[in-house]
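User: Sequence in, structure out. Go.
Assistant: Echoing your sequence, followed by the structure tokens.
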Amino acid sequence: MLVVSVQVSDAVVTVRARTRASVSAGCTGCGRLSTWCHSRYERLLADIALAGRSLRIRLSVRRLYCENPTCPKKTFAEQVPGLTVRYQRRTPQLQRLVEAVGVVLAGRGGARMLRILNVTLSRCTVLSQLMRVPLPPWETPRVLGVDDFALYGDTYGTLLVDATTRLPLTLWEGRDSEQLTGWLREHPGVEVACRDGSLAYRHGLTVGAPDAVQVSDRFHLWQGLSRRVQDIASAHRSCLPAALPPVSATDPALVEESGENTAADTRAGRHARRLFEAVQALSRTGRSHRSVARELGLDRRTVGKYARARTWQEVMRRPPRKPSALDPYLDYLQQRWDEGQHSAKILHEELQTKGYFGHYQRVKMAVAPLRRGLPLDEPRQRPPSPRGAARWITTHPNRRSPHINDCLARLLDQCPELRHTHDLVRRFAVMLDNRDAAPLAGWLDDLANSGLTPLAGLARALREDRDAVTQGIATPYNSGVNEGRITDVKLQKRLMAGRAGVPLLRHRVVLIAHFRRRDADRPIVSPR
């Protein structure tokens, strides 16, 4: 190729060039070389920016006759390797840049980034170029990971991942067994399949790959057990206050009574009390929660919460007091109040000399309970929620703080059901840590005979899937790779504002994983 001229303007660099007449070119139909020129024409090519300016190449190329009489092409246009591609007005280097930006940033974001790089393309063009990128080839994986993810609303999708290479294979809308069965029949050779406890995936794997070993994921097994623990803690909500450390006998009754009276005087307290009395009155007649909810216009779960409570204070939400800049000076306020200084203005001035930079109004509100004969509004420790108690039980003892260990010990001493649940959870944790499924049969029997309905239901579900559960405990295979890829799927969805269709989402998720793997394998060249 011969460069004829270069023209530089404020925004564009234009390069004029022409191909040499003496150089032979291969026919695009049969590949035979030819130098028999038919005519010339000019191609306008866009390249990556040069020195902050857009680069345009005006290239004069030949149209040649094909000298092979059996070739269906009579004439063909010559191509310059590394510069021109058939039916393309961008150089290969610029085309790779457009495709990479499209994969990473999709439509609008990609168009904005290309505009910064002095490449003007619309978002639709960026998306069309992205969809033209072929997906990388892959072989049927030996270890397959199957998991679902939320597409939008109540619509879910299925993601397949090669657990060996940790790369996504494909995804589709829906999580039914028929689609998974069809894919497995089209791609035979899967030896191990990791999944959650879904009945649809279990059936799809059994029909589509009957020889594959199914593995129930350890994370989902532990998650299912944790949910049952939370249900048990909710059923024994009345035992949760026992986790709090014993208070001093100076004024606990006064503090509790004043707190209840203050809550009863609020609008939320009166509303909770009215609902509690109405639900309790209807429940005592033997009516179902659904019937009571229909009459009172409440949700069935709300009726159940009020029916299980012993007092209306249990169902009233009390947000914990937020820490304040005044907290370090509360003891000083109490001391000065006891000494007879009851002026909030003077107290505020004294606190300012001690380093308090807060507003006077905060000091005035802090001493307001003292004027009514009540103690200062100090943060009070609240009993754990059922979710918090379940988290205490399912957390390894070495990872709990000493304070939580003390609170949990008091709670388990008060509630035999939670103690029994805690013992069963620890036994299952030992099986997972040691990867020993031998005690599983006895553990399932103990679950079924525990007298706790949530654990008995879990025992029935695990017995139906016992082979996969055994593999999940004893083998190193799991769905951790799927969970990481699902996080990536959610990230790509947010980057596209949730408006991406399944084909575009599949294209980006698969390509961006391969792009990252390629960049990670590329050696780093240090500058000299």
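User: And one key feature?
Assistant: The chain is about 50% helix and 15% strand.
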